Amino acid sequence: MRIVIAEDDLLLREGLALLLRAESLDVVAAVGHPDDFLAAVDKHRPEAAIVDVRMPPTHTDEGITAAVAARRRHPGLAVLVLSAYVEQAFATQLLTDGGSHLGYLLKERVGRVTEFLDALHRVAGGGTAMDPEVIAQLLTRTRSDTRVDRLTARERDVLALMAEGLGNSVIAERLSVTDGAVHKHIRSIFAKLDLSPTDRVDRRVTAVLRYLEDSRHRA
């Protein structure tokens, strides 16, 4: 897998590169500026990119902006965004640009090597990987009457784990229920969010996006 890293912290950037190369992954570029990131993506056409949210020159949303631009230039590029702390609006901004091959993790997860690598491979394989802390904060938001409010507590638990990019079997294991129970909960979630089986979209991704979008508007 060819990977481009965009991180302005030199130590973290070099550490990520060393970690990934130790796992026999091909880090083709590691840069500290969003313009250099876009140039590297155009040149190397990687399968995946790891991008910091806040980058020069203003250290606000340059990383997210660059990630969105890179995916528009190269559809299908997997992007794993890193942030020092939860920035829900930025997570939603990236996910609403297209719901597959995307992940959003806190930088502290990098130290948990197995979790970090699992998230990277998940987004490279076409899935999503949302940081559990982002999901936890979304779950604690107070909401008014919306489609998301139709969900039961267990259905919200299932949806939160779906947002992390987990499959049905793993969700069942996390919640100590059967695969059949998870499948039943997901069918109910789709129905309550008005997601028809005939929709020409990925209903799992759409359910997660509606959940995140609702929370952003009520932040």
UniProtKB/TrEMBL annotation:
Which residues are recorded with the post-translational modification 4-aspartylphosphate?
Answer: D52
List each copy of the Response regulatory domain by range: 2-122
Keyword Coiled coil in annotation:
no
Q: Name one Pfam family in it.
A: GerE
**The keyword Transcription regulation belongs to this UniProt entry's keyword annotation:** yes
Superkingdom: Bacteria
One GO biological process term? phosphorelay signal transduction system
Cite the SMART domains for this sequence.
HTH_LUXR (SM00421), REC (SM00448)
Give start and end of each HTH luxR-type domain: 144-215
Note the CDD domains from the entry. LuxR_C_like, REC_NarL-like
- GO function term, MF aspect, one: DNA binding
- Keywords associated with the record: DNA-binding, Phosphoprotein, Transcription, Transcription regulation
Q: Which PANTHER family match?
A: TRANSCRIPTIONAL REGULATORY PROTEIN NARL-RELATED (PTHR43214:SF24), TWO-COMPONENT RESPONSE REGULATOR (PTHR43214)
Protein name as annotated: LuxR family transcriptional regulator
Recorded source organism is Kibdelosporangium phytohabitans
